[in-house]
């Protein structure tokens, strides 16, 4: 599209088609001079950074699908391999702490490949001055989380940096898992007619953290949903062969996951707003802050895209598990418009749901 | 959720939409301007246009506080923020507004201490906690946000917090509406009046619109049913041949506004002779500055700011969008060079900006409406 020409004489459709066509093209060059917080928010800027820098320089067939885990193949044996870093503030929050999150986050990335987690690594970057008691509590809770997920922390590393150079503690975990099913999970498998299921209420983790920071003068009784999803995934995959793709809607929330699936699966996705499971506390806090719960992070939920004929079995399997008791169908895959997620509002209208641009910042009035 | 769901009921919306369609004169088009960005946001977020008959066109107005700040003021803000002694506090939306050399977010990445706050009182708190730093609050917004700045100023003075100051960019809605009415580019049939501004200023200031310009005004709330009912009340006036200022948002807005809030503003601020608005140019007596008694808390007095008028980027058509002369998609850089992640103009930054609302929420709805409409 010309950038300085006029749009006079062109219809809205023509202009929008050109915009969508351009939007679907991967970003080749990063437009920013410096890294800003937006690049870490899990939305559009993060996506651009990965495509325009990391993928450009490190491109290989294992990395290229840009899924939660890479799949390593050795003869008939398939393994999932993943890594994740945890920089959450505060270190302790209602429903969990950074240690539990670091274990569950990596376990869940493996689980989204349908893998049984085998072993984790744990790297600690500790700031000088951190209370040993705090570190003790965090590592104890990592141990508990690893046991609950049935995984061992097999190797680790510790670095200490000067006071003020890290915010207390950062943790990196990597993980390997065994893929013991033969289903081909991934956005390429998604077909029009497929159903999108979420395993429970959305937005708990992100809002619990925002409230726990204590900057908002909001008192809401909310806990992070951090949980290991490997057992839930095993239950689901054991119940039906109709699962197309699994994702955990962490940073960027359900909206970003669905936008990514629509783009990479080249399908349209239509969300029914009335069907979205959201706790009233999350709805209330989001209303006050002007944040859309669709963009708020989850740490114990999964999105499953399933074949239409598998809907009932998948729902029943998820609901039979304590972590999926409130599972619900929230969307349907459509042939059109490719690459775009639409939401049918409870009010009777419709709107686009795009990847998040920038931080989920509150409106000001 | 109580007190929210009631105003988003699909059933009520459908029956109201039918009543609106019943009032529409076939063949006539109605251009209704929603003045406030909060309305624009609600319209696209809930798909309100999907329920309106084709004859009604909603025109987005200038009432987005982020959108109307001209580039030069944003440059001034960044100049203050980059001073080493300053902690610069701002509402989140302003962090991403592009200035001559990047946004406040970029300035932060270069090392400036820029912090997001939810209220000016948070900024004052930061000042108390950092007595060796200069804490500046980037005050923007219409009469909705001005009272909270005013109260913060009186508190700073009462408590003697001397390392706190306000970079005041508060604007007033009435001169902007008058500028739109005087603009030859646009013919409007009525106004969906701003709800939250009116909680402060009341209904009286809008009378000239109904009187001198003979256009209906219906001050409306921000839930989608409020907007729909506002549109219905405007149409009702047009059908009855009335032009009045009516109050759809009576659960919040009072005829006389909020005298306490108005007094707080009057005590701390006064009208500027003139102020530049993005896209609308200089409008006389359209913005506020701190009174001389508050000079000590006035960032423009305390710090040297460039104060240079900077023209918008050539490609940017925010001005025409703000005046409702063009639709967001008609701007030549909309969606291509200018997107929410790399905005050129302010309208693409704020969630209340017409371009951001249309890009993020609305860019497919119009097409779908036309595709599903029965062919004649």
Shape field of chain B: globular
Number of contiguous helices of chain A: 9
- What class would the helix/strand composition of chain B place it in? alpha/beta
Helix content of chain B: 25-40%
Sheet with most strands: strand arrangement of chain B? 2-1-7-8-9
Average per-residue pLDDT of chain A, rounded, comes to 91
| Uncertain regions spanning at least 5 consecutive residues of chain B | none
Overall number of strands of chain A: 14
Helix content of chain A: 25-40%
Quick one: which chains have the greatest interface? A-B, 55 and 72 residues
Strand content range of chain B: 15-25%
First-last Cα distance of chain A: 35 Å
User: What string, H for helix and E for strand, traces the elements of chain A in order?
Assistant: HHEEEEHEHEEEHHEHEHEHEEE
Main beta-sheet annotation of chain A:
7 strands, mixed
Helix/strand structural class of chain A: alpha+beta
Question: What's the Cα radius of gyration of chain B?
Answer: 21 Å
The N- and C-terminal alpha carbons of chain B lie at a distance of: 41 Å
What is the subunit arrangement here?
A: heterodimer
SSE blueprint and pairings:
The complex is a heterodimer of chains A (365) and B (376).
Chain A: H1 12-24, H2 44-58, E1 70-74, E2 77-86, E3 92-93, E4 96-97, H3 98-111, E5 115-127, H4 132-149, E6 152-161, E7 169-179, E8 195-198, H5 204-212, H6 230-239, E9 243-247, H7 253-265, E10 268-272, H8 280-289, E11 303-306, H9 311-319, E12 328-334, E13 341-344, E14 350-353
Parallel strand pairs in A: 5-6, 10-13
Antiparallel strand pairs in A: 1-2, 2-7, 3-4, 5-7, 8-11, 8-12, 9-11, 10-12, 13-14
Helix pairs in contact in A: 3-4, 3-6, 6-9
Chain B: H1 10-23, E1 30-36, H2 37-46, E2 56-63, H3 71-81, E3 86-90, H4 104-110, E4 113-116, H5 120-129, E5 134-141, H6 146-159, E6 164-170, H7 173-182, E7 190-193, H8 195-201, H9 207-211, E8 217-219, H10 224-240, E9 245-247, H11 259-268, E10 269-271, E11 274-277, E12 281-284, E13 288-290, H12 299-302, H13 318-322, H14 354-362, H15 365-372
Parallel strand pairs in B: 1-2, 1-7, 3-4, 3-5, 5-6, 7-8, 8-9
Antiparallel strand pairs in B: 10-13, 11-12
Helix pairs in contact in B: 1-10, 2-14, 6-11
């Amino acid at each position: 599209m010309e950038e300085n020409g006029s749009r006079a004489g062109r219809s809205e459709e023509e202009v929008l088609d050109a915009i969508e066509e351009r939007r679907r093209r991967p970003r080749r060059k990063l437009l920013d001079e410096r890294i800003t917080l937006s690049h870490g928010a899990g939305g559009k800027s993060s996506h651009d950074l990965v495509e325009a820098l990391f993928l450009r320089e490190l491109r290989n067939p294992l990395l290229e699908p840009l899924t939660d885990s890479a799949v390593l193949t050795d003869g008939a044996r398939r393994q999932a391999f993943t890594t994740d870093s945890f920089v959450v503030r505060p270190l302790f929050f209602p429903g969990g702490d950074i240690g539990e999150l670091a274990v569950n986050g990596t376990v869940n990335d493996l689980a989204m490949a349908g893998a049984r987690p085998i072993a984790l690594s744990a790297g600690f970057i500790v700031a000088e001055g951190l209370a040993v008691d705090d570190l003790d509590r965090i590592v104890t809770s990592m141990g508990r989380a690893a046991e609950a997920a049935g995984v061992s922390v097999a190797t680790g590393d510790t670095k200490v940096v000067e006071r003020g150079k890290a915010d207390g503690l950062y943790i990196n975990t990597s993980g390997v898992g065994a893929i013991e099913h033969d289903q081909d999970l991934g956005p390429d498998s998604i077909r029009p007619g497929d159903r999108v299921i979420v395993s429970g209420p959305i937005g708990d983790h992100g809002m619990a953290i925002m409230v726990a920071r204590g900057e908002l003068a909001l008192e809401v009784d909310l806990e992070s949903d951090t949980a290991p999803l490997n057992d839930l995934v095993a239950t689901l995959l054991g119940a039906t062969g109709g699962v197309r793709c699994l994702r955990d809607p962490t940073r960027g929330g359900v909206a970003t996951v669905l936008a990514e699936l629509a783009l990479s699966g080249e399908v349209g996705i239509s969300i029914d707003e009335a069907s979205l499971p959201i706790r009233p506390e999350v709805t209330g806090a989001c209303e006050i802050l002007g944040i859309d719960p669709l963009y708020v992070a989850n740490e114990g939920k999964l999105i499953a895209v399933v074949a239409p004929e598998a809907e009932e079995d998948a729902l029943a399997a998820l609901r039979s598990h304590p972590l999926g008791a409130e599972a619900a169908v929230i969307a349907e895959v459509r042939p059109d418009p490719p690459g775009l997620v639409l939401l049918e509002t409870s009010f009777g209208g419709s709107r686009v749901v795009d990847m998040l641009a920038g931080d989920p910042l509150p409106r000001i009035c | 959720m109580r007190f929210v769901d009631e105003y988003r009921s699909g059933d009520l919306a459908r029956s109201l939409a039918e009543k609106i369609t019943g009032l529409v004169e076939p063949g006539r088009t109605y251009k209704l301007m929603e003045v406030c960005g909060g309305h624009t946001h609600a319209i696209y977020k809930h798909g309100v246009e999907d329920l309106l008959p084709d004859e009604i066109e909603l025109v987005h107005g200038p009432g987005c506080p982020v959108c109307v700040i001209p580039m030069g003021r944003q440059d001034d803000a960044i100049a203050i923020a980059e001073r080493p002694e300053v902690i610069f506090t701002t509402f989140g939306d302003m962090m991403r507004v592009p200035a001559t050399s990047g946004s406040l977010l970029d300035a932060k990445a270069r090392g400036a201490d820029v912090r997001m706050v939810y209220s000016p009182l948070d900024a004052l708190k930061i000042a108390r906690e950092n007595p060796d730093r200069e804490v500046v609050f980037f005050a923007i917004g219409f009469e909705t946000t001005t009272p909270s700045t005013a109260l913060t100023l009186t508190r700073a003075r009462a408590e003697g917090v001397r390392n706190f100051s306000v970079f005041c960019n508060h604007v007033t809605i009435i001169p902007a509406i008058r500028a739109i009415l005087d603009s030859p580019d646009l013919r409007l049939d009525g106004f969906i009046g701003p709800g939250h501004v009116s909680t402060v200023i009341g209904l009286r200031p809008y009378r000239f619109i109904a009187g001198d310009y003979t256009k209906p005004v219906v001050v409306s709330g921000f839930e989608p049913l409020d907007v729909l009912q506002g549109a219905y009340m405007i149409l009702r006036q047009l059908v009855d041949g009335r032009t009045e200022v009516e109050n759809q948002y009576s659960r919040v807005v009072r005829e006389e506004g909020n005298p306490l809030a108005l007094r707080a503003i009057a005590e701390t601020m006064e009208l500027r002779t003139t102020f530049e608005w993005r896209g609308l140019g200089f409008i006389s007596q359209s913005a506020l500055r701190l009174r001389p008694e508050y000079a000590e808390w006035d960032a423009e007095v305390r710090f040297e700011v460039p104060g240079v008028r900077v023209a918008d980027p050539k490609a940017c058509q925010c001005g025409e969008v703000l005046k409702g002369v063009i639709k967001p998609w008609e701007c030549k850089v909309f969606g291509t060079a200018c997107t929410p992640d790399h905005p050129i103009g302010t309208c693409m930054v704020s969630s209340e900006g017409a371009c951001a609302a249309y890009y993020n929420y609305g860019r497919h709805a119009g097409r779908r409406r036309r595709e599903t409409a029965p062919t004649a």
